[in-house]
Prior knowledge:
The complex is a heterodimer of chains A (258) and B (448). Chain A has 258 residues and is α/β, with parallel strands linked by helices. Chain A contains 9 helices and 7 strands. Chain B is an alpha+beta fold and 448 residues long. Chain B is 24% helix and 22% strand. Chain B is built from 12 helices and 19 strands. In chain B, helix 9 packs antiparallel against helix 10. The longest helix of chain B is centred in the C-terminal third of the chain and has 16 residues, at 383-398.
Amino acid sequence: xxxxxxxxxxxxxxxxxxxxxxxxxxxxxxxxxxxxxxxxxxxxxxxxxxxxxxxxxxxxxxxxxxxxxxxxxxxxxxxxxxxxxxxxxxxxxxxxxxxxxxxxxxxxxxxxxxxxxxxxxxxxxxxxxxxxxxxxxxxxxxxxxxxxxxxxxxxxxxxxxxxxxxxxxxxxxxxxxxxxxxxxxxxxxxxxxxxxxxxxxxxxxxxxxxxxxxxxxxxxxxxxxxxxxxxxxxxxxxxxxxxxxxxxxxxxxxxxxx
Amino acid sequence: xxxxxxxxxxxxxxxxxxxxxxxxxxxxxxxxxxxxxxxxxxxxxxxxxxxxxxxxxxxxxxxxxxxxxxxxxxxxxxxxxxxxxxxxxxxxxxxxxxxxxxxxxxxxxxxxxxxxxxxxxxxxxxxxxxxxxxxxxxxxxxxxxxxxxxxxxxxxxxxxxxxxxxxxxxxxxxxxxxxxxxxxxxxxxxxxxxxxxxxxxxxxxxxxxxxxxxxxxxxxxxxxxxxxxxxxxxxxxxxxxxxxxxxxxxxxxxxxxxxxxxxxxxxxxxxxxxxxxxxxxxxxxxxxxxxxxxxxxxxxxxxxxxxxxxxxxxxxxxxxxxxxxxxxxxxxxxxxxxxxxxxxxxxxxxxxxxxxxxxxxxxxxxxxxxxxxxxxxxxxxxxxxxxxxxxxxxxxxxxxxxxxxxxxxxxxxxxxxxxxxxxxxxxxxxxxxxxxxxxxxxxxxxxx
Lengths: 258, 448
């Protein structure tokens, strides 16, 4: 990997990945909504050793803006070899329960816009016949739970989409990497109870960087133990699973009142 | 959708101090990830309701705000600028000593002053005006802060330094986090030739011998400190460590996963017998004078960091740390203290002794002053432990000494007044929206 584009550079996991990549003296293009925050990130990564850091402010949820990013990348970040999609949102499930609009919004941000943005760059990767498209989905997409099923649906759909991209890009020699973190301690999950027990973004970033440098595997769970946890969870028949979940209530993913 | 600058409320779990005593509940905890989020938080806050929180390595209640709120600043950790020719770095206040070291060491620089753990934030290091094994040469952390930026409820960003808003600068150093939320700080670094430390290990068998050793060693050695066995009645034996940065090449340090204490040990784990055994074992292992040529800097400066969450060994009860300083001529006070501790059988494995130098810190409430400092841990066994520490306070008071707020959970207002007779000078600089459990405790009943 020499030139990395990060979509959602202000996210907790993305920042941890960017820092590791910067230390190795690579080039980065950071994409996020806030120009101010992008500037802070740019300075941070330059201090840490990045050779070059470009920034592009846009709302990735707005599909009409995607073409501008593609043009910017062609002009200023030509020849980039790795793309990491790290943006997402986590709306309150209890609110989504009663609002079609919020449900649609969550699905749009985390799945529809992501699929569209990946599509905007697929031709580029298909043409150059090498490189890696990496996307952070979630273990929440492996098995749907009552406590965050809209979020889980979006991430699960994205995982499926990536499987499709993978089969499309196989002959072109482009790697499609699906990254499935368990719960990670970032600003997105900070409102949940017990969030300090979630995985450290540093460790997740280490796993991601390792996966980006390797050819395989193309589906990575981080921390690694989640691969086995989800295998076991997926094996539970749905009626039993639903009964188990209902017994323990909407578990960890519930905002805590202190 | 929440505005991205709106304060993010998080659960109050895991926000303790290092000694885990006292345990308090907070009304709210806010998390900031970006500097712009701080000012709106301060503006909206009720008077005396907030306190910045870093990594909670203060031992007592300095970093706690019982019944009120905290601002978790530990994610405000970006680097803003650095100059590896002149040797300085500017970083947000949530960056840790560990973060800075991993950036600067490969480039031939080191921290000018470092406390005994690298898991403290720059903000915490400034608010406590921390010191290290080289105080006799380099003074405190605050001596090496070139400038800093504060966010106050009445001003979004105030830059201060020795020649700019100097009053506020001096108040912020050692200012217990009460003068505002530190947004960033610029730290002067120290050039090093290599990452190893030339280390000498010298056992001693009395406090007088320690004093002689340190007076001699402080001339030629940058880093000096002693571990003391405080559980043997009568004689005080210990191990003296002295070291200098080494120019010799050091083999590459392998990154290793440090073990973590996974749960709170039961309360009886650290008792009079196990601790005596631990002490005897440690002294035995180090009893021969050693000129070990080279050790890596990490285990020399941060021996306990290799075990994550070692504070859990003390169990759910938590523990108290008692760190005091007395002028050199009141040295006998330490012998009295040692008597008290060994009689009570309540002391612990970790007793550290060091001679402070005379380099003055700019901080108004700076703890280190010329003399000798002693730090002891005590498992919290309720009233008996608190009574013991009170009798120790009397000894220190008579000796003209002081207690270190960063370690304190229980000193009385009278003891605080005796330790920091100039404390009132801090008052005008305290931001009206900020307060802490420690501040309310140690200033209760004192004349403003």
